[in-house]
Amino acid sequence: MSSLRDYLAQKRRAWLSKQDGIATADVITPTARVTAEGRSGVRRIRIRDHQVLSDSAPDYAGYDLGPSSPELQLGVLGSCVTHIFLIQAAATEVVLDSIEVEVSATIDPKAGTPGFEDVPPSPQNISYTVHIGSPASDAELDALFASVERACPILSLLTNPQTITGTVVRAPEHSEESAR
């Protein structure tokens, strides 16, 4: 079985190749489509050729068939931090034998209810801990960590103000004109 060190060598080759085309690369437009499934209410997330199920716990009329949206968000942050650690380690040739990122947050279920109108419904106090096995020096790991915090797109998304727009489009079979 190959090791993380072997993977980092492969990652470095891919990273170097990608650097050659960055100056002429087109803007990327990732998309996700989410549908609520029939009686279960399970949210099926489709991204490219992949599917992920998101659900609620039974106390929110769910069946616990997958992680909740806030849990997925924490997982997305952890996945991105892990990936950027791998990229930055490969780019700077910092040896890693293992990496695990643990992400946590608090959510107050009283958010928005009477007397708690000012409590945000979003996860709060988000933190992550990176567990690294590496022969690298503390200075190398500190530099690696700093480069990850600068480069991680999801960390940036969550820590920097964003503009998000939304619209509602009525399905044709439910338009006011079709009801007549």
TrEMBL record:
InterPro entries attached to this UniProt entry: KH_dom-like_a/b (IPR015946), OsmC/Ohr_fam (IPR003718), OsmC/Ohr_hydroprdx_reductase (IPR052924), OsmC/Ohrsf (IPR036102)
One Pfam short name: OsmC
Gene3D superfamilies: 3.30.300.20
Protein's name in the database: OsmC-related protein
Organism (species): Actinokineospora diospyrosa
Phylogenetic classification of the source organism: Bacteria, Bacillati, Actinomycetota, Actinomycetes, Pseudonocardiales
